[in-house]
Specification:
Layout lengths: L2 H16 L22 H12 L6 H14 L6 H4 L4 H9 L7 H19 L3 H7 L4 H10 L12 H11 L12 E3 L2 H10 L5 E3 H13 L29
Antiparallel strand pairs: 1-2
Helix pairs in contact: 1-11, 2-6, 2-9, 5-6, 8-9, 10-11
Length: 245
């Protein structure tokens, strides 16, 4: 596939993702809980903790659960509280709105990320970013060098998605965040295959749109169907092997 066609697909996907163009679904990580200011320290902690438990989750449901949880119990997103919390005491609060699906392990991870922010950055995500000069590659390397301190958040797929998420959803300026490599998810792989694009990694900027495309679009087609039933409303249908061309 030519570079021009790839660039056109990228442009269309990014525009659709930002403007509810993927079957009425907005970029779920951009939606704010009521009263939370975008880019505030509390918002950055909110994004950090939710991205930590985002692996494998349906993003629309995850972020809706996160917003509901924040509205009901904002203290759960306070690193200073989490640093000294007993993870077992967090379980009922984290599961009340379906924010976590693995109560024992994810409550521990949630608490440890709050603790890590306090230990390494005084409880402030912004301080962590400044320590690495707000450079995407440096932040990624820092997390990979501190996997024990930042469990799950330092993972190969989660870390770059979190860094870009701070930019895209938190309006933070992080150099190179949009071009960090991310291993594909099953939904991203399905979307790429239908679009005739090969590879095991994508950039952070297109991971979210492709994942949403795969979940809400490509999975609508049964294996025996020659065309996709939602092709007429798909922004990249003309590039798809199952689009109505």
């Amino acid at each position: 596939m030519s570079i021009d066609r790839l660039e056109e697909m990228r442009r269309l996907l990014l525009a659709a993702y930002a403007e509810e163009g993927l079957w009425g679904v907005d970029a779920p990580e951009r939606l704010l809980p009521d009263g939370l200011a975008r880019g505030s320290e509390t918002h950055l902690a909110f994004l950090t903790l939710v991205f930590t438990v985002s692996g494998g989750r349906e993003p629309v449901q995850l972020w809706a659960a996160a917003r509901d949880t924040f509205q009901a119990d904002p203290e759960l997103f306070n690193p200073a509280m989490l640093a000294y919390a007993n993870p077992q005491m967090l379980v009922s609060r984290l599961t009340a709105y379906g924010l976590i699906r693995k109560p024992r392990s994810q409550s521990v991870v949630w608490q440890r990320i709050g603790q890590a922010l306090v230990m390494r950055a005084g409880g402030f995500v912004w301080q962590l970013l400044e320590a690495q000069d707000r450079e995407g590659n440096r932040l990624l390397a820092y997390l990979q060098q501190n996997k024990t301190t930042f469990p799950v958040l330092s993972g190969a797929q989660t870390a770059p998605r979190w860094i870009y998420g701070l930019v895209f959803a938190g309006d933070v300026d992080i150099t190179g965040a949009d071009s960090l490599p991310v291993p594909v998810s099953p939904a991203v792989r399905q979307a790429m295959r239908n679009l005739g694009v090969a590879g095991d990694q994508v950039t952070t900027a297109v991971f979210g749109p492709l994942d949403l495309l795969g979940r809400h679009g490509c999975r609508k087609r049964t294996r025996s169907a020659a065309t996709c039933p939602v092709a007429d409303s798909c922004p990249v249908a003309r590039f798809c092997r199952y689009g109505n061309r």
